[in-house]
Amino acid sequence: MTYDVVSVKADGMIKDVIDHIRSTQHDGFPVLRGNKVVGYISARDIIGVHPSVRIEQIMSRHLIVADPDMPITDAARVIFRSGIQKLPVVNEKNELVGIISNADVIRSQIEHVSPGKVYNFMSTLKKLYGIEPALERGNVPVDRLRPTQGKIYQDELEGRMYEIKKGLAEPVIVVKRSGRWIMVDGHHRAIAAKRLGIKNLDAYIIVINDDIKLGLERTAESMNLHSLDDIQVMDYARHPLVAITHRLVPHD
């Protein structure tokens, strides 16, 4: 996120917003009362508004804000699904600490793209456990998959269901060992398949014959994950680190 945030005061005037747009080339600003975020105002909001009107009369009051501890992938989901361009970041006192834009999110994702997830994972297994896993391609039983991720998101789940219906879904990645199927990647696709009544999924299957317990299995045990039914499906806008400002700030 950007720490040096240009903001405006709630008791300021639209003229102040116009001046900020001209001097910074930004198209919108968090609105503060004291140090607390109480709204957001954009260039679109002030079209046709007289410069002497107070900002608090025009600003959007129910904007989405995020916690500094939110993962960048969750911030990206909120920005994309909500159609917003900038996401103010606030602390537990609702004080502005930064802002993240859709451009920031795109940049972060481009910089962290890592193709070859299957082979990278196999390479990691070799280094950690000194084993030689084999790779197969085939179908895996949905009702026997053990998850290693405790939550998924409703919006992405709906997207995966659409892809499966259209025959566009990518394979999931699983580890097969001692008759068990442990998920590495593709939890949204697995839940989507289960909801659609699909019994088997196309998968990259990493076969391990060695008698070892993987870190993935220990993670599943610690989170009490035994089947796909144990995964929590979350609404993206109800992430525990997202809030709506009108719930945080008492009304005047």
UniProtKB/TrEMBL annotation:
Pfam family, one: ParB_N
Entries under InterPro entries matching the protein: CBS_dom, CBS_dom_sf, Diverse_CBS-Domain, ParB/Sulfiredoxin_sf, ParB_N, UCP004699_CBS/ParB
A GO biological process held by the record: methionine biosynthetic process
SUPFAM superfamilies to which the protein is assigned, alphabetical: CBS-domain pair, ParB/Sulfiredoxin
Coiled coil: none
Annotated ranges, domain CBS: 1-58, 59-118
Superkingdom of the organism of origin: Archaea
Keywords: Amino-acid biosynthesis, CBS domain, Methionine biosynthesis
Record-given protein name: CBS domain-containing protein
